[in-house]
Write a structure and sequence with these properties.
The complex is a heterodimer of chains A (about 400) and B (about 500). With about 400 residues, chain A is mostly beta strands. Chain A has 2 helices and 32 strands. The chains are: A mainly beta (about 400), B mainly alpha (about 500).
């Protein structure tokens, strides 16, 4: 017979039942406590209970997912390209670079159009955020952020302010001023605070609210004036990389995509996830609503773009080609929703026929990965930004943002 | 080569699916039956087997993926830049040449996906070998790196030189052909991992992404436990709700896209062009001037768009103003009503036409109420209580000056909510009024004489004649920045105008 021996460090009052007993060290929420033998056993069974809940929850989630897929498949009676057979094929598209905006010294990470259809704001890896009148290619404002990798920027609907953020984990709003005596950085307002990098930001219908997505796995809605958190959105299992607001009548939802391969639609008012789609095979880099608001497209590292219909509650089209093997970093629709422009990490832009599912054309114009792509508000052109930096003359690097029409 | 696979190799690999796809492509290119035509390449007196030319690769790509020459060249170039193919002659630039330059497929040992850290020590050994083999054989940037490394790891420099010598001696034991191939392979590997200045590095990935934060399972009683349980609980709840959703048949949804696209096709400048011309193409911004938010005479396409959906009518300031006009005329034929009295912040909507007037009819009140609710929903947090109060006094209170008719149930709910005002407290009432206008006033507006007249009077700009001398560039007019406009107009949701 062998006695069960254990290391007794101390003899004293148990932290739980306070009786005088031989105590064992025990870890609860990374804090060290001393429990007596019976209390330690009780705690061990508590732990088991927690584990059971976790395992059972996981399996429940899996089985629910399976059921959901079955339900979704029930109403799927036809494919998009079949329905689109009636539609006339598109002719050859000629889109050329009409403007090249030179001025960033480093990778362009993000850009956004102003509602006036010609101004844009762009941000880059070295912390520079520049506002351009892209029609004349003049730079109008420039701000240097205190952090590098400014991955998100947005133009306010009024055209009077811009928001940007990145590795500083914050989203800051800068009112645009033409006053030479005023330093734009002085009037900066820190609005959003996340615990990891800011990946995307967007103003809602006014200058007063901002929606942000972050590498900490959450999205959040903020009041610009006070910096107050109005609503937070939890549900992604990994970094959230992109978001887009729905053009709907009630204007209450938005979609986000993340590294957990999920695209989730949220109700801004309640903070609840309304719909979730998990058909991509890799990180979702970009999401954009179809102009009617009934669907959205997503671009992912798995080299495909997909169209998800919100009423049918399923994926309805995949835009892919065997020769396209690099991830899509950024997608946007033309005004009528017939064309989908997608920028890829293989330095090209592919133009897809949304209805027929075929590729209409491929645009070569960048010398490094295309990181951002947006169609202008009136649909006359689109702008693409990339990681180009071409050494043309000694000691001078310039990077291109291009406007195509 | 020292070192082994990176510690978090599995995670990083999942973030770069393009590497595995490239590898599959390269493997299929080497298939003896279906792959690229291989031949033996003669270099001076050595014969290297299994070599391919740039043209062979392009032809194979064109044939296999049904793509154009331009795309095949681009794809081939990417394969070379990522180090999956290397040139046998003069491998100091990784590009796909279409002459007789022979290429070979890189050995999997050196593939990017192995994620070996390409350590400084290895690089130092490689440079030392190159230096020893041929005095002055290092490129400028390599010389710089060599000196840097010499300074940095001077304590292990003996090891570096010794390793270099050993490797060179071992290489001498091999046949000349093998020696050449191995040297090229190694050089390509280092060109990928230490690109010369001016060449973009294909290794750059951007900030690190963490693929599993919330779902991560830590030690059984560790701090992440509760977070994981919450995460799954939320997911289960979301899935349960999703199962109960009402869904629409695919055929119905997809038909809607066809209808939408065909309806909007003529309005899409990229698809159908725009009149007079696309400003980006002709440098002429007349198109923007004609379609400015506050243009006096709207274009025909713009007026037609108001018939597509109620939302689009309201989103266009000119459309909304005409609708307001219609609503007031419907009731009393009087001029349209004044706006909410100015408070801080000033009203964000287009200025009213005409001045203060006698009490107008209910239909116009609906639109004013809707606008006031929008202001509440999208306004600053600090203004919420004051705005709610103002809206209540103006529109909802019994005997209010501009009372709107809401059904009793919604009114009850709203009144209850008013006890604790928040920005969404008027959502139900707003939606009720919106639907009322959409189902009732809007269709009447579209059938009205007012709308028909607008359509008839609308402008159809003539197409700009093609310039005979296209190289004479028109000066591009700048436009005032929306940030420069006076405060009251500047907060319009549809900002500045592109007037030349």
């Amino acid at each position: 017979m062998c006695d069960q021996t254990f290391l007794v460090n101390v003899f004293g009052s148990c932290d739980k039942c306070f009786k005088q007993r031989a105590l064992r060290p025990v870890f609860k929420k990374s804090q060290q406590l001393s429990y007596c033998s019976p209390c330690a056993e009780i705690m061990a069974t508590d732990g088991l209970h927690e584990n059971e809940t976790l395992a059972s929850l996981k399996s429940e989630a899996e089985s629910l997912k399976g059921k959901l897929e079955e339900e979704r498949a029930k109403l799927h009676d036809v494919e998009l390209h079949q329905v689109a057979e009636r539609v006339e094929a598109l002719g050859q598209f000629v889109m050329k670079t009409r403007r090249t905006l030179k001025g960033h010294g480093n990778k362009v990470l993000c850009m956004d159009w102003c509602k006036d259809k010609r101004r844009i704001v762009s941000s880059s890896q070295d912390g520079k955020v520049i506002v351009w009148d892209s029609f004349t290619t003049n730079k109008e404002h420039a701000v240097t952020m205190p952090c590098t990798w400014v991955m998100a920027c947005a133009y306010a609907p009024s055209g009077c302010a811009i928001a940007c953020g990145g590795l500083d984990n914050k989203c800051s709003v800068y009112p645009l001023t033409f006053d030479k005596n005023e330093n734009m950085a002085a009037k900066k307002k820190s609005v959003a605070m996340h615990t990891n990098y800011l990946s995307a930001c967007s103003f809602t219908n006014s200058d007063m609210q901002i929606l942000t997505a972050s590498g900490d796995g959450t999205c959040a809605l903020w009041d610009v004036e006070s910096g107050q958190l109005l609503q937070s959105f939890h549900g992604h299992g990994a970094d959230v990389l992109c978001l887009d607001l729905a053009p709907s009548e009630t204007g209450n939802t938005f979609v986000s995509g993340g590294c957990d391969k999920k695209a989730m639609v949220w109700d801004m008012r309640s903070g609840q996830c309304v719909q979730a789609f998990e058909t991509h095979e890799s990180d979702i880099n970009s999401v954009r609503y179809y102009p009617s608001g009934d669907a959205f497209a997503s671009g992912s590292d798995d080299a495909t773009c997909r169209l998800y219909d919100l009423r049918a509650d399923r994926e309805v089209a995949i835009y892919s080609k065997e020769s396209i093997i690099f991830g899509a970093s950024s997608v946007d629709f033309s005004l009528s929703g017939r064309l989908l422009f997608a920028g890829y990490n293989d330095y090209t832009i592919n133009v897809w026929d949304v209805l027929k599912g075929s590729r209409v054309s491929i645009l070569f114009g960048h010398e490094n990965r295309v990181s951002t792509l947006r169609v202008s508000p009136d649909g006359t052109a689109f702008c693409s930004g990339s990681w180009d930096h071409t050494l043309r003359t000694k000691n001078y690097l310039f990077v291109s943002l291009q406007v195509w029409a | 080569m020292a070192a082994g696979p990176a510690s978090h190799g599995g995670l990083r690999r999942a973030q770069r699916p393009h590497l595995s796809k490239m590898e599959r492509m390269v493997v299929s290119m080497q298939d003896p039956d279906q792959g690229v035509k291989m031949r033996s390449q003669r270099l001076l007196i050595t014969v290297i087997p299994h070599a391919v030319t740039g043209n062979d690769i392009m032809e194979w790509l064109i044939h296999k993926y049904c793509i154009t020459e331009e795309e095949a060249l681009h794809l081939g170039t990417l394969l070379v830049r990522h180090g999956y193919l290397y040139p046998l002659r003069d491998p100091c630039h990784l590009e796909l040449r279409l002459d007789e330059t022979p290429y070979r497929f890189q050995t999997p040992y050196f593939w990017m996906s192995t994620l070996w850290p390409a350590a400084e020590l290895d690089y130092a050994i490689y440079l030392a070998k190159k230096n020893i083999r041929k005095r002055g054989g290092l490129f400028d940037h390599e010389k710089e790196h060599y000196d840097q490394l010499h300074r940095k790891i001077s304590h292990t420099w003996d090891l570096v030189v010794m390793q270099a010598r050993e490797q060179l001696w071992a290489a001498k034991q091999r046949r000349k052909g093998d020696r050449l191939v191995i040297a090229c392979q190694e050089q390509t590997y280092w060109l990928v991992n230490r690109p010369p200045p001016g060449v973009p590095s294909v290794l750059e990935q951007g900030p690190e992404r963490n693929s599993c934060t919330a779902g991560r399972v830590q030690m059984p009683t560790g701090p992440f436990q509760t977070k994981t349980v919450d995460f799954y609980r939320r997911e289960v709840e979301c899935l349960r709700k999703a199962l109960g959703r009402a869904r629409v048949k695919s055929s119905v949804c997809l038909e809607a896209y066809l209808k939408f696209s065909s309806q909007r096709g003529p309005h899409d400048p990229i698809m159908s062009g725009c009149l007079p011309s696309n400003p980006w193409v002709t440098d002429n911004d007349t198109y923007w001037a004609m379609n400015a938010p506050s243009a006096a005479v709207p274009t025909r396409l713009r007026v037609e768009q108001w018939a597509f959906s109620f939302r689009e009518l309201l989103e266009d300031p000119v459309g909304r103003a005409h609708f307001m006009d219609f609503l007031s005329k419907e009731f009393s034929g009087e001029k349209p009503p004044p706006r909410l009295p100015a408070r801080a912040p000033p009203p964000r909507f287009p200025p009213a036409w005409g001045g203060p007037d006698p009490v107008p009819g209910p239909p116009a009140e609906n639109l004013s109420f809707w606008e006031a609710c929008e202001e509440l929903r999208h306004g600053g947090q600090a203004q919420v209580p004051a705005l709610v109060d103002a809206v209540y006094q103006q529109f909802l209170a019994p005997g209010a000056a501009r009372w709107v008719n809401i059904d009793s149930r919604t009114m009850e709910r709203t009144l209850v909510g008013l006890g604790r005002p928040h920005r969404h407290v008027l959502d139900d009432a707003q939606l009720h009024i919106y639907m009322l206008m959409k189902k009732d006033s809007y269709p009447r507006f579209l059938k009205s004489d007012l709308y028909k007249d607008l359509l008839a009077e609308a402008v159809v700009p003539p197409k700009t004649k093609r310039r005979v001398f296209p190289f004479m560039r028109k000066p591009r007019h700048s436009s005032p920045s929306p940030a420069l406009l006076p405060a009251s107009a500047s907060r319009e949701p549809s900002g500045g105008d592109g007037e030349a």
